[in-house]
């Protein structure tokens, strides 16, 4: 095991969300950090520049500095990458991102790991902020831009370190899930559904991965689990740690009821094993975020926080970029960005936006971009997920060249099925075509919900620019 002293560390594919966060943690800990990546762009390029981390464009063996003590290799890097080959040939010590996080930052902490198919980024950031606002000074690593922390990471002097635990594989030399490296003492399990169709063959493989994670929790730890969400109940039985359940239906330990959606707040009553703890308020929208908040609330309660401290943290949470984020308003037309890419997430996001904005016409624009959504695995489920929108708009799946034609999602077929069911839906081949075709049709009071797990060719800025040119109808 590497001694966590000051080291010269090079990071291959440094601009990945997790890699950049780890780079920040290492730099703030006093290590000398360099990195390289094929695509260097904001917000990660801004973060690296702010930290004065030298970042090389592209991958070349000579970019690994002389005297490098350790190389961290991101999971987007293949074994034939020029820098990875150089590391192997020179015998330079190397780790995956989750291995490095574990060895440098989690060994002497009590890790709190948030896992699940959906909701883990928001839940992680909300948990970390609630602990921060209570004075616990936790460490943090999250797979998104947490507004309260002005980034995706934080060194903390407290005993807790909050980590978003990803079920995706760790590196070309370690095909196991990242979250198996994180030494959890406490955890929140939000959901278990099929996803990541490029590495998991079926739902049983997904369940196996989550089962392996829950069995890492020690008897003195705690798992907060949402049994209503997919296969959660099937992966928590017989583990060493105590389990407390949460949700919106009867039979759970932590129950939210009397949910009320207001113009800028969600209000709900919390019951713990039948005993009311009173009402809580949150700025997050949607029933799915009530569940996420409930998991956080239950864990904080078990960690000894008072109702007042918990409520203070919930109300002070400023959210995550790309999660129901309003990116602009023109002529009373709201353009909102969201990371949703799984049918369950699309459905929950549309429902949440409608609950917060009941008097607006909701346009749901979806780019199938993730490894799973580009495949026809959820061809029928995407139809169901988009039915709740007033208008649905789809484009071609992103970069499907590597997917066999018979395995690709068919966006036009989804639109045809929505129309057959009487829903208003359109297909366009590209982001530019969407902007050209829908901007003249938008009216004051509309809300455009853009859902994609990537940049979607800058559609948000293009749409706002087009709307600024359109005459007000």
- Main sheet: strands, sense, barrel: 10 strands, mixed
The fourth-level CATH homologous superfamily of the largest domain is: Mur-like, catalytic domain
Number of domains: 3
SS elements, strand count:
23
What would the principal axes of the Cα set say about the shape? globular
Description:
This protein has 473 residues and is α/β, with parallel strands linked by helices. It contains 13 helices and 23 strands. The model has no long low-confidence stretch (mean pLDDT 93). Helix content is 30%, strand content 25%. The strands form 4 sheets. A 10-stranded mixed β-sheet has the order 8-7-9-6-12-13-14-15-16-17, sandwiched between helices. It has helices at residues 17-28, 44-50, 82-90, 97-106, 120-133, 203-214, 287-302, 307-316, 343-356, 379-386, 411-420, 431-438, 459-469; strands at residues 8-12, 32-37, 54-57, 70-73, 94-96, 110-115, 139-146, 151-154, 160-164, 169-171, 174-177, 186-189, 222-225, 243-247, 254-261, 266-272, 275-282, 325-330, 333-338, 361-366, 391-394, 424-427, 446-451. The chain is globular. It has 3 domains: 8-96, NAD(P)-binding Rossmann-like Domain (Rossmann fold, 3-Layer(aba) Sandwich); 108-316, UDP-N-acetylmuramoyl-L-alanine:D-glutamate ligase; 325-469, Mur ligase, C-terminal domain (Protein-Tyrosine Phosphatase, Chain A, Alpha-Beta Complex), CATH 3.90.190. Helix 1 (17-28) runs parallel beside helix 4 and helix 9 runs parallel beside helix 10. Strand 21, helix 11 and strand 22 form a beta-alpha-beta unit.
